[in-house]
Design goal:
Length: 126
């Protein structure tokens, strides 16, 4: 097969697939990257999303859950145990659920845009 088109980085990342071929698994575990793609052999050692996915997820989940908690408090004034019962599980779902897709998207975008740490390479250039 000749070189095929690359998949969309968003679609490949959300599905946890290889950003080059869109077929192999990007992840070995929940958030652990596979060493390389089992379909095309792309080495995933370039991938370093750092704290990026966690920051996005925490900001988004915090905005949603705190907004809901404030709304419920102002409307119904439930006891504190009801708040703990509602928002404890919801914050776990809202943070752990999107963490893997977010990490996949950030790594796929990193590959798509050939992003890497800054280098002091003064030779030639493109
Ligand atoms: Zn691949």
């Amino acid at each position: 097969m000749a070189t095929s088109q690359r998949p969309s980085p968003i679609a490949a990342g959300l599905a946890g697939r290889c950003p080059q071929c869109g077929k192999g698994n990007l992840f070995n575990g929940f958030l652990t990257l596979a060493p390389k793609c089992e379909a095309c052999g792309l080495d995933f050692s370039f991938a370093d999303s750092g704290d990026g996915p966690a920051v996005f997820v925490i900001l988004f989940a915090g905005f949603v859950v705190v907004g809901l908690a404030l709304g419920v408090e102002f409307l119904y004034q439930p006891p504190y145990w009801a708040h703990a019962l509602l928002w404890g599980p919801l914050i776990l779902l809202a943070t752990l659920g999107p963490l893997r897709p977010f990490k996949g998207v950030l790594i796929a975008l990193q590959y798509h845009h050939d992003a890497a740490e800054g280098r002091l390479d003064r030779g030639g250039g493109r």
